[in-house]
Amino acid sequence: MTLDQSQDVPTAPDHEEISQLIETGYINAFHEADFPKMRRLLHETSWCVFTTGDGALESCAFDDDEVRDWAGSEQEWNHTILSVTQAGDVASVLLEMRSKADPDSAWVDLHALLRIDGEWYDMNKTATHASRADWAGAGEPAPGRAPDRDQIVQVAQLYIDGFNHADAEKLREAFHPDARIAYTDSDGQLESHRIYDSIDEWGTDLDEPSVYGRIISVTQAGDVACVLLGFDWTPEPSNGWVDIHSLLKLDGTWKIMNKTATHASRAAWAAPGGQKAG
Q1: Which of 82, 105, 138 is at the close of a domain?
Q2: How many angstroms separate the CA atoms of 116 and 278, rounded?
Q3: CA pair distance 219, 230, nearest whole angstrom
Q4: Are 150 and 178 within one domain?
Q5: Are residues 155 and 112 in the same domain?
C-alpha cells in the first residue's frame, strides 16, 4: 500500500556543499575542460538518460571516455540550481542549463547523489530538453503541485505493489528497461546495477505484503520528475529504505529511469520516525 501524502521537506543541511559540488565538478568542469573535476563528481558507476527536443531518448554511462568527451567540449553554460533536496545520505538537485554559445542548447537535469564514505557523488543524471521542461525551462516559478502528480504516484504504486506481490509485470511497467539502481546499505556500502537484471527476484521472499510506501514529495518539470519515497519495511520500519526515483515522460507515459536510495538508518528526517543518519 502507498500513502499519497506529501510532508514538508526541510532545507537540505548540505545545500551549500552539494550546490558547490555541482557548480565545481559539473558546470566549471565544462568551462575549464577539467576532466579530474568532472570525474571526481561523477561516480564511476554513474549513468545519464535524457530526452531531446523531439522527445527521443538517449543514454550513456559516465565511463572515463564519456567524461573526457563531456569535459573536453569546453562548453560554457549559464545555469540555475532550482532546488536541492536531501534526506541524510541521499540527495537530488534540479538544475537548469543554457549554452552561452547556443541558447537553443538548454536542458533541465535531475541529479541524484549519494554520500559514500563521507563524500558526495553524482550517481545519475535524468534530464530533458528545456523546451520540454515547462516552468523549469522557461524561467517561471515552480507550480505548487506537480500537474501529473496522480500519474507519477501511480507509477510509484506499481513499484510498491509489484514488490509486495512479486509481480514482475507491474515492476516492468514501472521501470524503463534501461533503468538503473544505486543504493547504500546500513553499513554505507554501495550497490549498483541494471534493475531488469534482478527484477524477477524482487519480492519473491515475502510471505505477505510487507512494504508500505510513503510518498514524501513529488517534483515535476514538464517531462522530467522526481519522487522522494519512503520504502518502509513494516515488520521492522527501521530496516527500510528512502528512495529518489527519477522519471521521464516517454511518448506520454511516465517511466522510472533511475532509483537512488539509502538505508532508513542513513536517511535522517525522511526515515520512519525521523531517524538520524548513521
Answers
A1: 138
A2: 12
A3: 15
A4: yes
A5: no
**What torsion, rounded to 10 degrees, do the Cα atoms 9, 229, 152, 109 define?**
70
43 within domain boundaries: yes
Residue pLDDT, tens place only, 229-261 = 999 999 998 899 999 999 999 999 999 999 999
Residues in contact with 23: Cβ distance below 8 Å, sequence separation at least 6, in sequence order:
79, 81
Q: For residues 272 and 87, what is the distance between their CA atoms, to the nearest angstrom?
A: 12
Residue 236 grid cell: 521492522
Q: What is the total count of domains within the chain?
A: 2
Report the C-alpha gap between 178 and 257 in whole angstroms.
7
Largest CA distance in the chain: 58
Residue 151 and residue 114 in one domain: no
- Taking the C-alpha atoms of residue 225 and residue 219, their distance in angstroms, rounded to an integer, is 5
Extract the runs of DSSP E, i.e. beta strands, from 100-160: 106-116, 119-129
Q: In this structure, what CATH number is given to the domain that contains residue 114?
A: 3.10.450.50
Q: What is the pLDDT of residues 72-122, one digit of tens each?
A: 887 889 999 999 999 999 999 999 999 999 988 999 999 999 999 999 999
Does the pLDDT at position 277 exceed 60? no
Q: 6 lies in which domain range?
A: 2-10+142-270
Residues 155 and 96 occupy one common structural domain: no
Report whether pLDDT(125) > 90: yes
pTM: 0.95
